[in-house]
Amino acid sequence: MQPKFSRFYARALNEMDLSISQYALLNQLAVSGGPMTEISCKLHVSKPAVTNLVDRLEKKKMIKRVAHPKDRRVYLLEIQPKGEKIVREIQSEILKFLLKTFDQLNAAERKSLVRFYALISKTIDEVLFEPCGTKT
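The chain above was modelled as a monomer; its predicted structure follows.
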């Protein structure tokens, strides 16, 4: 399934002229902005890679660097309306696809699927949870 989802996302992102990494950054900023270092940690990519993504998305007017109010060395990242719109459009396309599939299930299958995805979400959260700036 994962390769199929990857192709599905790749097609949607290609239509928006975005890479998967660029979308991951936009999606993260749609949830919460923050310093580039923190975003780097949350996305599990290097700081130079985030800088490269930011440069490209800034040129497309999807995000903006903002000086930190207390530390001139730090830049905060903010998603712009154009970036928000793209994230909403892609999420909407994915949701339509999922709902179309979900509608084909009976009540018992839906209940099992909802439970399954709740467990997957919890497990992923447990695996990925590592506060930024700490190592285990």
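The mean pLDDT is 90.
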